[in-house]
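for the writeup, i need someone to sanity check this before i put it in the appendix. the sequnce is what the collaborator sent (i think, or maybe the updated version? ugh). structure was predicted straight from it, no edits. if anything looks off just tell me and ill rerun, i have time this weekend
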Amino acid sequence: MRRRSDNGGRIRDRRGLSDLSRSLVYLWLALGLSGPAWAERFLTVSEAQKICFPEADSFEAQVVRFTPEQIRSVERRSRTAVLNKGNRIWLARDEGRLVGVLVLDYVLGKHELIDYVVGLSPAGAVQTVEVLAYRESYGGQIRDSAWRAQFQGKTSAAPLRLHEDIYNISGATLSCRHVTEGVRRVVATYEQVVQPRLLAAGELAAAR
């Protein structure tokens, strides 16, 4: 299923996403759930915070709700459909200074959700990508540090495309593609929604 963006570009829905699977994604996201209890869980959000921002001494949780215009803006910038209506984020601080932002997100692997976080610098560059939970019986190679390291330093200006600046893993193509698309959407969300919000609040003036 395809639909056009406002600027005439193509925005792809998740490949292979059935109507039932799409409904489950919407339901999980709407309820704020991270997925079924039988997921193989690797990290909690708290553990991921310490990995992504070891220098931080505090994390402030926030929920960012998107307006319809912000959704359209993120879709245009990322060339990816926005399925959820917001994101949970944590502002990482060291002695009161903003050192980064952690964004919790979900994408579909082949049939099941993948829970992951993206650690961003105040300027919007990816610092780390960590997989929190994985539910497929195959494709878990996306947890390999070498594959995830490809995202470091990427911003919304990067292609962030599989087979272009992100290499694929044989046997995990859909997971690789969807996580790559998800990171592209997250950095666009930061640029279009979160960063302006932080600027308006004066959070970036003392950021480092």
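The mean pLDDT is 86. Residues 198 and 204 are 6 Å apart (CA to CA).
thx in advance!!
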